[in-house]
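User: Reviewer 2 asked us to show a designed sequence for the structure in our supplementary figure. I'm pasting the structure tokens here. Could you produce the per-position amino acids so we can include them in the response letter?
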């Protein structure tokens, strides 16, 4: 993968773009230009410049995709689960074959380091592989109604599903929603974020090449207001999977409510990493660094709060500062350790959070300023930042920054650690580092989060259900639990006589 990916990266730096990038929607098994001919630009965050144009869709493009998906839905729902699984397995193989190109495009569109993008593509392939097998697990139950009755349930696809995909993990998030939806027999219309549309379009075309019938998976690009909102409110859509901000998630719920459309929301996070005094500090430091500085902190489940025993606070924070200051910063395609933020608007938002903390007198141990790629003097970068000893009610503790900003909260007792961990409106994930088995599982039991990692942040994989509590949303993606989101139960009870 490395040789081909590096060749493509060189092509980009030589020409300013890449050949073969999609410019149209993918509807009904083919590339379709926007109905009204409007286009918009996608940007390279590492250089802060546009590098390609793509379709700016609206309600008419959504209507065309809905018509296609509805036509395809009846036959796809009746396709044998093993047949659906075979197509998903072929898609997994194609993802692996085309991994270098997909990774380069993902890195270019989102800004993330190429090594991280390569991991995302591998994870997407594993997702389709997993749900290829899981398609055969959908089965109903029988009910004990007595000798004269027969009772059983049938698992049915919910129908047409809408997927609103965020900009931080475009391919990963598309895969984790689209794969189980297809496995369950649903049709799909995806609307990727306007900042990162490329890999969702390429995924839809790849699925078609894998044998997915025309119309089963469609991708319409454009803004949330022009394309996303008409999709969410369309009466033919029976399920919406949304990943994004809390406020936009609330808006999605309100739009979907008019048609009593079910929703799955994966929203914000302010996740704690709790480190007890007996923890393996080498493992904890590595885990904390990855939890907050991977993808420049632009992760819903980022470990953005370090809740740490005061007895080891000084040593751990000192090591974290040293490591943060040593991270290599640069354009994602040059394989740095730390890449840019996704947009100039988001860079301004992150900077405003940190400037507010500075104005309130908080201790910023390292970072805290916008910066640039040292090789080019360009791009939308923000320094890896650590803010120490923030009060529990401070905005940098309570609000999601969605950037490379770690907030440190010391504690003296396990009870205080638990209170701090649960002390925000969010409940997406949490991390715990300790050698004490009982303490680890007490905290895992009592922390209000949808997922808890013990002694390795981001532990697990596609097999582990993922989703939030409180303002972090509801519903679960990944694992077999994801199939429930795209399925409905029909019960049958029959008197058969004696």
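Assistant: Here is a per-position design you can include in the supplement:
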């Amino acid at each position: 993968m490395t040789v081909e990916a590096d060749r493509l990266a060189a092509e980009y730096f030589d020409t300013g773009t890449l050949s073969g990038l999609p410019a149209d929607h993918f509807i009904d098994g083919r590339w379709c230009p926007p109905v009204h001919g409007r286009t918009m630009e996608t940007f390279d965050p590492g250089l802060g410049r546009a590098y390609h144009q793509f379709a700016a869709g609206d309600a008419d493009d959504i209507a065309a995709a809905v018509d296609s998906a509805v036509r395809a839905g009846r036959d796809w729902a009746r396709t044998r689960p093993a047949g659906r699984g075979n197509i998903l397995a072929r898609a997994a193989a194609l993802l692996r074959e085309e991994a270098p190109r997909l990774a380069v495009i993902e890195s270019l569109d989102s800004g993330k380091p190429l090594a991280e993008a390569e991991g995302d593509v591998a994870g997407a392939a594993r997702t389709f592989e997993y749900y290829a097998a899981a398609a055969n697990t959908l089965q109903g139950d029988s009910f004990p109604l007595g000798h004269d009755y027969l009772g059983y349930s049938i698992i049915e696809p919910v129908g047409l599903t809408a997927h609103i995909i965020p900009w931080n993990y475009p391919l990963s998030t598309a895969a984790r929603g689209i794969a189980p939806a297809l496995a369950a027999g649903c049709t799909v219309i995806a609307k990727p974020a306007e900042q990162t549309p490329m890999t969702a379009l390429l995924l839809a075309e790849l699925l078609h090449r894998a044998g997915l019938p025309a119309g089963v998976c469609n991708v319409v690009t454009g803004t949330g207001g022009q394309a996303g909102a008409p999709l969410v409110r369309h009466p033919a859509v029976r399920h919406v999977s949304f990943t994004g901000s809390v406020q936009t998630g609330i808006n999605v719920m309100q739009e979907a409510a008019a048609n009593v459309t079910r929703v799955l929301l994966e929203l914000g996070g302010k996740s704690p990493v709790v480190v007890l005094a007996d923890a393996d500090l080498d493992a904890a430091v590595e885990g904390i660094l990855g939890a907050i500085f991977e993808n420049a902190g632009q992760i819903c489940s980022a470990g953005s709060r370090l809740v740490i025993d005061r007895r080891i606070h000084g040593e751990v924070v000192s090591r974290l500062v040293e490591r943060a200051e040593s991270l290599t910063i640069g354009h994602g395609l040059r394989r740095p350790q730390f890449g840019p933020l996704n947009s100039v608007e988001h860079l301004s938002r992150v900077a405003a959070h940190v400037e507010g903390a500075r104005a309130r007198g908080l201790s910023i141990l390292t970072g805290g300023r916008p910066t640039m790629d040292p090789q080019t003097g360009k791009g939308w970068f923000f320094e890896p930042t650590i803010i120490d000893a923030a009060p529990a009610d401070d905005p940098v503790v309570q609000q999601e920054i969605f950037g490379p900003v770690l907030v440190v909260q010391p504690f003296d007792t396990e009870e205080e650690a638990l209170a701090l961990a649960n002390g925000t409106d969010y409940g997406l994930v949490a991390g715990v580092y300790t050698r004490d088995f009982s303490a680890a599982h007490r905290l895992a039991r009592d922390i209000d989060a949808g997922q808890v990692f013990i002694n390795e942040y981001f532990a697990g994989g596609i097999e582990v259900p993922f989703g939030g509590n409180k303002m972090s949303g509801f519903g679960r993606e990944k694992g077999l639990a994801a199939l429930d989101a795209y399925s409905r139960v029909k019960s049958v009870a029959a008197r058969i006589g004696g």
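For the response letter, you might also mention the following. Residues 87 and 187 are 14 Å apart (CA to CA). The chain has two domains: 2-267+476-488, 272-461.
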